[in-house]
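Usage

Read records sequentially. Each one opens with the input sequence:
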Amino acid sequence: MKRILLITISMSLMILSSHAQLPTVFVMDAAHLANVKKKFQQKDPATVQLIAKLQTQADAMLSKKPMSVMDKTLTPVSGNKHDYMSQAPYFWYDSSKPNGLPYLRRDGVRNPEINKITDRKNIGDLESCTRVLALTWYFTGEEKYAEKASALMQTWFIDDATKMNPNLEYAQAIPGINNGRGIGIIETRGLVGVADAVGLLEGSKSFTESQKKLLQQWYAQYLSWLLSSKNGNDEHAAKNNHGTWYYAQVIDFALFTGDKKKAAQLVEESKKRLDIQLTKEGKQPLELERTNAMGYSTMNLRGWLDVAKLAENTGIDLWSYKTPLGAGIQNALEWLKPYALGKEKWEYQQISKYNPAEFYPILVQAGEKYKSPAYFDEAKQVKRENNDALTDLFYNK
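and closes with the structure output:
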């Protein structure tokens, strides 16, 4: 009897330990990451090779200078460089005007002037670096990676001298027309990845509970701005991919800050956005009217996969949700897939070269969610970069 009791206690402790090892992430799959970590510790050859690729990326980031909104040489009209700012990418100098103002729109053609303001690039670098570094620490336990990720987040969100103010009042401004637009909010979608990096770093010596609370406070302030400001309301009302990525952000930020009720409310609300975006065949007409229609259709679909994954944390199933016309996320995937894979001729505009590798993570994630081996087989046929270790880590079997 005593022996049976000891075995029962031992098994219970093992189960508790297993659950304790699951990272607190919302877009990433916690159970899958824990399984990858287990396989790495067991020296599974394929997993060891993937982690080695990831570690190579992380090593290159260890010497990277912390990025900050203070790096930009220009200052927003607020007079405060702590405010994020950027310029609308598809608007150009009007040579018919003496001072070139107001700028004119050329959809799909990026104006290199936007690179003069570094905030947009910096926030993208912040996301990619913190995610890679946090994952590398999670798998290897080498503290140098957690230390670097912690320092990057400390600089961007916490330190008084370098932190970003939690608003996007001055994003994607159009010279001669406005100082910022709600459309610019799409530029902070990378903060979803940063929030997951925080969860991955839990347990490291270099990332403290105090830092986590300060980050959650920053996200809570930004979420409040997103839900109440004019720019936030404008993006909230956006019918196309901007609306999709708005929901991805606010749902994630609500989860990260512990407001699961608000997250569930936003998930339910997002269904109405999907309703107006899809035809019964799964076409995305609001993206098809763009000059890079295939690219935007892919981007919007990626957004919905993120929203559906986030919805799982609220107990709501968006993967099988159907609009009043009978379409859903999988229908949108099926309609777009033959064109993205080059099996059928694209009949809409795509003025920039489309990269089929963008469709790879959609196929592998859908393969897992819809239990479809065919998606995994098709994903294997997609030519992509050799260093795409992250996608393989997230979805490899």
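Summary fields computed downstream for this record:
- The two ends are 40 Å apart (CA to CA).
- The first strand starts at residue 85 and ends at 87.
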